[in-house]
Amino acid sequence: MRICIDPGHSGPYEPGAVYDGVTEAELNMSIARYAGDLLTRWGHTVFYTRDGDIDSDLLLPRVKLANRLKADVFVSIHCNAAVSHEASGAEVYHYPGSIDGNRLAAFVNCAIKTRGIPSRGIKTESFYVLEKTAMPAVLVECGFLTSDDDRRRLSFAEGRRIMGEMIAGGVSAYGRHISRRSYGRQVH
């Protein structure tokens, strides 16, 4: 399967959420690498929308890259923030009405819950990267930087590795599902 991973935001130019010295863009990049490395070891072809800090946070080039590469799935990795410090847990978004996006989100969300990571469930949203990609796409909010528990978990390499593993596991399970679904079909 060809997988395009989008580590959200861009680094110093647009760091995303920042709380208590923890920067979303850095966490996103680390989680993306853990997920991508594992998917590559499992035989998938992985592309990244960025491989480090970049000078732009424009979304169109990320979408164009995924579409040009004809990726089978698109996964955008983010961390959340909220006014309430009580908000915590991962969320998996897909584009409203996308059946395959919903399936991909379900596999990723299920994988996240298997490791005991709090899940706020599957949600729909018209995020640009979900709307404009030509393949099933999800945006994973890995936790809230404003939550002490989530921030602590994601601040350590082990927490980011586990999140990357769960994302990779869900994406890979989705790939096995679509392979089985098309198994035996004749092409005319």
How large is the count of helical segments?
6
Strand order of the largest sheet: 4-1-5-8-6-7
Q: How much helix is in the residues?
A: 40-55%
Number of strands: 8
What percentage of amino acids are in beta strands? 15-25%
Task: Identify the quaternary structure here.
Answer: single chain
- What is the helix/strand order? EEEHEHEEHEHEHH
The global form is globular
First CA to last CA: what distance?
Answer: 22 Å
Largest sheet, in brief, is: 6 strands, mixed
Q: Would you kindly provide a written description of the structure presented here, covering whatever features stand out?
A:
By secondary structure, this protein is an alpha/beta fold. It has 6 helices and 8 strands. It has helices at residues 24-41, 60-68, 99-114, 128-131, 148-155, 157-182; strands at residues 2-7, 18-19, 22-23, 45-48, 73-80, 90-94, 119-124, 137-144. The strands form 2 sheets. A 6-stranded mixed beta sheet has the order 4-1-5-8-6-7, sandwiched between helices. A two-stranded antiparallel sheet has the order 2-3. The longest helix has 26 residues, at 157-182. Mean pLDDT is 94; it is low at 183-188.
